[in-house]
From TrEMBL:
<dbReference type="InterPro" id="IPR036390">
    <property type="entry name" value="WH_DNA-bd_sf"/>
</dbReference>
<dbReference type="InterPro" id="IPR052509">
    <property type="entry name" value="Metal_resp_DNA-bind_regulator"/>
</dbReference>
<dbReference type="InterPro" id="IPR036388">
    <property type="entry name" value="WH-like_DNA-bd_sf"/>
</dbReference>
<dbReference type="Pfam" id="PF03551">
    <property type="entry name" value="PadR"/>
</dbReference>
<protein>
    <submittedName>
        <fullName>PadR family transcripitonal regulator</fullName>
    </submittedName>
</protein>
<feature type="domain" description="Transcription regulator PadR N-terminal">
    <location>
        <begin position="26"/>
        <end position="100"/>
    </location>
</feature>
<dbReference type="InterPro" id="IPR005149">
    <property type="entry name" value="Tscrpt_reg_PadR_N"/>
</dbReference>
Length: 132
């Protein structure tokens, strides 16, 4: 893991649920194609990840973008062809490397969760057979 990244638990996530991975989702959206803040918010909403309502929520996205930029995972460039101009973010090779790490980490977490579910189902079966 890159030393500076907080695994989605710092400013970029709530520590649980979908919000925990918000920074990773934002990085993935940027990896798909260079884009800007409001477009990221729209895509998060379309994916069912985060409903952005009001400027306060946009502030959260911009804080995460600033954090990703400080880690060297993305680079911004002003697009003055739009009115008003927008800051378009592009993923860096380091950002792609981190995204690969994040996917491996999620895969490991899925295995742990599958084990949890399997053990829970065993408990249910055991309790169901005891009731008969």
């Amino acid at each position: 893991m890159c030393a500076n990244h907080r695994g989605g638990r710092g400013k970029g996530g709530r520590g649980r649920g979908k919000g925990r991975f918000l920074a990773n989702y934002i990085l993935l959206i940027i990896a798909e194609e260079p884009t800007y803040g409001y477009d990221i918010a729209t895509k998060l909403d379309e994916m069912g990840i985060e409903k952005i309502e009001g400027t306060g929520q946009m502030g959260r996205i911009y804080r995460i973008l600033s954090e990703l930029e400080s880690y060297g995972y993305i680079i911004p460039k002003w697009d003055t062809s739009k009115s008003p101009p927008v800051k378009v973010y592009t993923i860096t090779p380091l950002g792609l490397e981190y995204l690969k790490y994040a996917v491996e980490s999620v895969k490991q977490e899925i295995k742990v969760l599958e084990t949890f579910i399997s053990k829970y189902e065993d408990v249910l079966k055991k309790n169901d057979s005891a009731d008969e």
